[in-house]
Amino acid sequence: MGRVALEIALDALIPLFPLDVVLFPGTPLPLHIFEPRYKEMIAECIAQQRPFGVVRAVEEGLAEVGCTAEIVTVVKEYPDGRLDLVTEGRKRFELLRVSQERSYLQGEILVIEDEPGAPPLEDITRAIQLHSELLAIAGATQDLSGADPSSLSFHLAGSLPLDLDFKQKLLSLRSETERLSLLINYFESILPNIQRAARAREKAGGNGHVH
């Protein structure tokens, strides 16, 4: 059974799009396609109705873990062939090998699945509360309607402009319990600084007097 599952999860070669982002499953990613090699890649993905892999570009080359992206909508096609797309993260993968046979990179990947087990309810509640507080500072509200309970951590982290190294670490963890615990610690560490900065902005935007 394990071997069959492995063979199914192993994709021969998938197109790769190296970016300075970390994409999570279920998170939207708007893209502007302008380089000839990526126009070619996206045209093939649309024609074959297949996903491509978004993987973070790092100093050493490419991150070891990425996420497949499905093209949801072609928003605009320009006369010169450029494209505006909305894509969405689907499945995490481990990048086993990179091929440079085409104009764009391709990768041999292994799809990553989570270990079984659900996080404690108190962790879920705490993570949602902290996320809501962070959004409130920015004047935004929380929308959990499309969140998958088994990957709530990705939904919460994907809606905020967090540190990319942190996001990459979160993407690599194979336990929702571990991810939520890491996310709670991270939220608790950044919240006081963001609250202080928000209060300072409020004072600066007042009548000029420091109370």
Structural summary, described in words:
- The chain is 39% helix and 29% strand.
- It contains six helices and seven strands; from the N terminus they run αββαβββββαααα.
- The chain has a five-stranded mixed β-barrel.
- Helix 3 packs parallel to helix 4.
- The protein is globular.
- The N and C termini lie far apart (68 Å).
- The N terminus is likely disordered.
List keywords for this structure.
alpha+beta; five-stranded mixed β-barrel; 6 helices; 39% helix; 211 residues; globular
Structural class: alpha+beta
DSSP helical segment count: 6
**Overall geometry:** globular
**Run of helices and strands:** HEEHEEEEEHHHH
Query: What is the spatial order of strands in the main beta sheet?
Result: 1-3-5-6-7
First and last CA, distance: 68 Å
Strand count, sense and barrel status of the largest sheet are: 5 strands, mixed, barrel
How much helicity do the residues have? 25-40%
Indicate the radius of gyration in whole angstroms: 20 Å
* Spans where pLDDT lies below 50 across 5 or more residues: 1-9
Average pLDDT reading: 89
Strand content: 25-35%
Please count the beta strands (DSSP E, at least 2 residues each).
7
